[in-house]
Design goal:
The chain has about 625 residues and is α+β, with helices and mostly antiparallel strands. Helices cover about 45% and strands about 10% of the residues. A hairpin with a 5-residue loop joins strand 10 and strand 11.
Length: about 625
């Protein structure tokens, strides 16, 4: 009968290289004949090399290099013993032994592979056991890949955040027909920028996660033996926090799943059925589950870059890594308090109002040289509650100019400026910058707004700062330029509406120039020094939220506007000293440095792309 198997390595090479998988006697005879010729021509080592470069290893991979990249994101020469054992186990039945589709069967076959390695003398029993435990901890325990994932899909989607954003921005009429074939979507994404964003952002977020994760304590028996009595004595003498014992991986997984998937349903069943014991169990798992989720969450973040004169989005990153369990596009969905990176919007509002209204009382005027009292101050709200803004450094300088106050990010000055001008003057202009005036959103009429207490997205902050970079004109970010059908006919075209100079004037060119001058000082002399890039002028501002929960940097060169932030999804401190200037600015600077390499000499809307331009500005510079 026709059965499978019974092929030597040489026969498999013959079939892979010259024949098909047809099950027939004729194919088998040809395979045997070619095998004899191959054996005469090549050594056993060369035949094995050919085989390993061609053997199918599942999910569309052919050869050990492709498989090593797909399964472990490394070259085959970097594989550990356990990883090599996984690939070896796939040579017989790659579909049914896939660790993504059937991890139990994959483990069983890998154990057999290790047994063979012990029998051949390549590994001792202790070495094999250690390698298998490492594989279990570092690979099987962390599997989150879809069973349908494929190398073909990876080749097509090298930049998944950009692809997901393009699909999100598709005009409604294309959503259900785009997969029917023949359509081509042309985007504004710049591959150099996108590659730089991913190369700088993703490893950085992973490193921040590792820095902030506490290593689990494993030596409980030793601790109890040496210090157990002391711990109990301390509990008798003074109040001590509850001593936490080791939580197994399985229990941690259960608690995380309870919080994310089961809590609402089980609580509903509890209310319907009652039971004191059940209620206590649910309360325990709720409290412990939320703690586990908080402790295990990664440091996330987002980045968006765009051209300041056209709004063309050139790069996006939506989180710490695009995978089945985490596909958020945080640059458009994650509203976070921007901290001090919001101050330039407030100062721009005051400077714009002063420039557009001659003869204002001195108290209502604001220029780069206006003197403000940098001293501690307390405000009382309508309910008589107190609000006392403090400078991050804890230092106060008395009367200082606005330029220096922004350079050093003085909180007390920002709040006093907001109070002096008033929300009736400041809020409408900030709302224009953020384009809130085209919708229903309104800023609160409170001084905390000056310190970035109102949550916004990186998309909105990049769009607002683009007004400074574009000489005062509003920018409408876009990622899809046009779409064609299989014949090349244009079905959708957004290029005309995004030509330079199309947006309405939100600020005067004079205000845009003054704000750029102030923000250049922030980068050159102040809290944003880590964001400087060689060969290009840069303007920008870091931002840090209360308890260091988020770190921002928003800034621009004449060519690119970029906003990025780092922070946990569930509000939690990034750690002592985790500021926008210390954490976000260096990342922003490295990304922008890489993104500017190979930039074109000519860009739409910019006469000299290597210096800031403010056409029509009548700013007069006076030093005193």
């Amino acid at each position: 009968g026709v059965i499978a198997g019974a092929s030597t390595i040489t026969q498999q090479v013959a079939r892979l290289r010259f024949l098909t998988n047809e099950r027939s006697l004729l194919r088998k005879l040809r395979e045997a004949f070619l095998s004899v010729l191959i054996e005469l021509r090549y050594s056993k080592r060369e035949i094995m090399e050919i085989y390993l470069n061609m053997v199918p290893l599942g999910h569309g991979t052919n050869g050990i290099e492709a498989a090593a990249r797909f399964y472990f994101n490394k070259s085959f020469v970097e594989l550990e013993w356990g990883e090599a054992a996984v690939l070896s186990s796939l040579t017989t039945r790659p579909n049914s032994l896939s660790p993504f589709k059937n991890p139990t069967e994959s483990r069983r076959k890998v154990r057999i592979t290790f047994q063979k390695l012990i029998e051949s003398g390549d590994l001792s029993v202790a070495q094999a056991e250690a390698e298998f435990r490492r594989l279990e901890t570092d690979f099987y325990a962390l599997l989150e890949r879809s069973p349908n994932d494929s190398a073909f899909h990876q080749r097509l989607n090298r930049h998944p955040y950009a692809t997901a954003y393009v699909m999100r921005e598709l005009p409604r009429k294309f959503i259900f027909i785009i997969y029917r074939g023949g359509y081509r979507i042309y985007t504004s994404i710049d591959i150099r920028h996108q590659t730089a964003a991913e190369q700088q952002m993703l490893p950085y977020l992973q490193r921040q996660t590792e820095r902030r994760r506490r290593a689990p304590f494993k030596y409980f028996e030793s601790f109890d033996r040496e210090f157990g009595d002391l711990q109990r004595l301390a509990n008798l003498l003074i109040e001590q926090p509850e001593f936490r014992y080791k939580v197994s991986r399985e229990e941690r997984k259960l608690m995380r799943g309870f919080v994310t998937d089961m809590a609402q349903e089980l609580n509903l069943l509890n209310y319907l059925g009652g039971g004191r014991g059940i209620n206590q169990a649910l309360d325990y798992h709720s409290s412990e589950g939320f703690r586990v989720v908080e402790e295990s969450q990664p440091v996330e973040g987002a980045l968006i870059s765009l051209r300041p004169h056209t709004g063309a989005v050139t790069a996006v990153v939506g989180g710490a890594g695009f995978k089945s369990s985490n596909q958020q596009l945080r640059f458009v969905t994650a509203a976070r308090q921007p901290g001090s990176s919001f101050k330039p919007l407030m100062y721009a509002a005051g400077i714009e109002h002063t420039g557009q209204n001659r003869g204002l009382a001195e108290r209502k005027q604001l220029t780069a040289s206006t003197l403000i009292d940098d001293t501690p101050i307390t405000f009382f709200s309508d309910d008589l509650s107190e609000y006392s803004p403090k400078n991050y450094s804890g230092q106060y300088e008395g009367l200082i100019r606005l330029r220096r106050a922004l350079t050093l990010s003085k909180n007390a000055v920002a709040v006093q400026v907001y109070e002096r001008l008033g929300p009736s003057i400041v809020n409408p202009i900030i709302e224009r910058l953020l384009q809130f005036d085209q919708g229903d959103r309104k800023l609160p009429r409170e001084a905390a707004v000056a310190l970035g207490s109102y949550a916004v997205t990186p998309f909105e902050m990049a769009r607002a700062y683009a007004v400074f970079a574009s000489g005062g004109r509003e920018v409408q970010p876009y990622v899809i330029s046009h779409i064609t059908d299989s014949a090349g006919d244009v079905l959708y075209d957004a290029r005309e509406e995004h030509l330079p100079g199309k947006g309405r004037e939100v600020l005067s060119p004079e205000t845009a120039e003054i704000m750029t001058s102030l923000l250049r000082d922030v980068v050159n002399e102040g809290t944003g020094r880590s964001a400087r890039i060689a060969g290009y002028p840069v303007a920008g501002k870091p931002g840090t939220t209360n308890r260091n929960t988020n770190a921002w940097f928003v800034g621009y060169s004449p060519r690119i506007v970029t906003a990025l932030y780092l922070g946990f999804d569930r509000p939690m401190s990034l750690g002592q000293g985790a500021t926008g200037g210390g954490l976000a600015a260096p990342l922003w600077g490295r990304y922008m440095q890489q993104a500017h390499r190979g930039e074109p000499e000519v860009l739409p809307g910019i006469e000299e792309p290597n210096r800031f331009e403010f056409r029509g500005s009548k700013v007069v510079r006076v030093e005193n």
